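Deviation from plan, reported transparently: zinc ion complex.
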Amino acid sequence: MQNSLQNSELKDREDVAETRVSFGASSASALFDALRQNKIRDEEVWGLGNRIRICSERENHWIGDELHNTETGELYAGNGNLWSCGSKLCPSCVAKASNRSRKELKLSLKNQKLLTGEMYQFITLTIPNPGLSLIQTRAVIDRIWTLFRKRDYFKSKVKGGSKSEEFTLTENGYHYHYHLLCVTRFLNFNEFRREWSECIEIAFREFNLPCEFKTEDGLAMVKIKRLSSSASGLKGAIQEVCKYVTKSDSWEKLPQKDLVEIASIKRFWRMFEIFGSFRAQRNANVVLESPNVFITYLLTKLIVEILKYIQTGERITILDTKQISDGECSSEFADLPEKVPKRQKEVSWRKYILENGLESYFEKLAEQVEKTRYARKCFLSLKYKFATFRTLDGVSFSFEQL
Ligand SMILES: [Zn+2]
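Because the crystal trials were delayed, the predicted structure below was used instead.
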């Protein structure tokens, strides 16, 4: 163990985990500061802040060495969190979502067949900064995208693709943009820009916003880059499209009112989307709306089996080993079963707070977190019996110990 802890791959995983813990903790404290300073008592938002804080605790993050890919036997180091808050403000959970998107996109790409005249393109779409809050800006750009997608031009040129969004915060407000990785026919640069610019103008008009393009030809800035269809040609674009959609540290830079506004969103928008021919393979993939569904599924299944094991000593194979990663499994999602069974929906945490108050929720949450962490440790050490694991607070766990 001592030896393996020195290996550099494991060190990398540890660094990733450390970064997430520290970003997560600062996200939570930025949110708490904003709530305190603006005297916001909304219990749901306080609940959210605490979920992010707990998700970023050192004891919630594991790193493991000598996990194995059950198909190839290849060993690798991994990291992840035991309990997931699932928030878009949480760097660990956002990273997990990015991982999932990357898998989804890779699978879509694998199944694409380029016809004559078709090619892969990496496109960045920008809009002039409308000088609004983040959420309002997002509503505007979403409208532009809807208009653009419905155009005959778009339909005739773009066969399918993925779309992700990103923003940067500057002194002049939010710069929102989309990244597309898609299969298209030949695109005339200016024609493409003209179509996109028209959609911007229409949407800005609908929102009563003045629209001015600060370019020489009065069209919106668009970048189009043709990609080689080889795996390496697409790799960089996949990374770009599926990187942490909103860089974790940007939450701290957000004006407090925007941070509170974002924290108050009950159903966060999808920041990654696939469309057209990329969508055809979607059902073949694991698409999960909430990581908690999975955790609960595992939890229920595991606890029943563990109890059986304790009582009877009979070891039962409870893990679905079909869905195994290609050795890049740094997220727990890579090793989850193919289908999530339908189960009775548990009362959402938001609803719970609304009905029972924050204090009662904190008690329930502490209990849930403890159970989930334990179950997750069981899951990991059962699945990777020969691996060594420890949490970032230094406690090791393994198959024998649990
Ligand atoms: Zn989280």
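The chain is about 45% helix and 15% strand. We consider this an acceptable substitute for the interim report.
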